[in-house]
Specification:
Strand order of the largest sheet: 3-2-1-7-23-22
Number of helices: 14
Distance between the termini: 66 Å
Strand content: 15-25%
Shape: globular
Length: 475
Amino acid sequence: MADSEKLAAGEYTTRQPIEADYLIIGAGAVGMAFADTLLSETQATIALVDRRHRPGGHWNDAYPYVRLHQPSAYYGVNSWPLGSGEKDATGLNKGFYELASGLEVLSHFDQVLRRRFLPSGRVQYFPMSDVGPDLSVSSLVSGERRPAKPRKVVDASYQKFSVPSARPPPYAVAPGVACAPPNDLPRMARAYRDYVVVGAGKTGMDACVWLMENGADPGRIRWIMPRDYWLLDRAGVQPGQEFLASIARSVADQVEALAKGRSVDDVFARLEGCGVVKRIDVAVKPTAYHCAVIGQAELELLRRIVDIVRLGRVIRIDADQIVLERGAVAMNRDSLYIDCSASGITATPSKPVFEGNRITLQIVRMCQPAFSGALIAHVEAAYRDEAEKNRICTPVPPPDTPADWVRLMAIELANRACWAANEEIRAWQARSRLDIFVRQIAALNGTETEVFKELGRYGRLAARAAANASLLSAN
């Protein structure tokens, strides 16, 4: 009997069950952050299953020059630092706290697994494996299948990421046209005269920056920009104590804009006016918002690209033209197309995080997946009432548009108010590595007048902001 026939017949199936209190499906950032906090705060046993060969989720498929767009201090797991905690002395991020590279992120999760999870004796790790509807764990390499008998199932794969290297371009490409994901850019860039970057999100911005930092003339770059994005100013999200007043001001500015805005456009005009958000072209109104963070030096570099095509999404790429939703543009045949059109985190409908013996990990603080995974684990460890657990952990889906940000801020502000009113949650935040702002606020000695002034402004406007966010979203 051939090996394939033996697999089909189940001859390689092992019936020894996997015993664990929690079966975690997915070893990306959220799943790892959940497992880490659960390991710290309980005596539970964990079976961690992932389809990839190492932890880190979509970071395994990322392009080689990718970096976090927020400081490293906000990412990873609670128990293990990511990076050195130092500021960059050179480059586009000079003067700001370091942004971990993709390799550093993967190393972080690998170290957490090898040096913390596995030595604990309470974590079993199953890479290159899948979980079936019957909770059997199957190896994608050997085909071996084992039943699992967990007390609870934790779905850390519900909110999925879409990255260019993990799927073909979503448009037709003519034979002979060079079209590659950003992963191939370092290998292929030297062979072409012109570069066409398809997509204007963080991946597209990174590709444009990489090209210019590596010697490409901005005049040789054509940027296909289906939508313009609002971008958060990196100066307003720095973790150091010396930036605390600036962060407090930014947080207060956000609720004031939300409280006083007469429309979604007016809210973002106010946010831009106080420097919370930026845009690449001040003459074009952005229609997208994905929580991407950018520094002023990087923004100025991107503004050097003047050949920007705003004709919607790509329909197809022919040998001598690119066809878009609202027209076609002639192209040089000696061009390299860099497909940066993947959407990042994909939209999924929110559902209760806690449902009986199933936990569905979702983002509960806007655009902060690692913190969200850690907080959900803490709530699972510290609380018993399911309704209370779900009240503390109300999902905040990732925004796609400015209107989404306004709508979701009503949920975000309700979550913040819930946590602030809960002494136990406040205490956990104050000792959490991933909650820098609350931890720093808790350590204040009362003399930081500027910080307390901004916190007071936030407190006076938060309820009004939440109410106005709901009103604007209903209109």
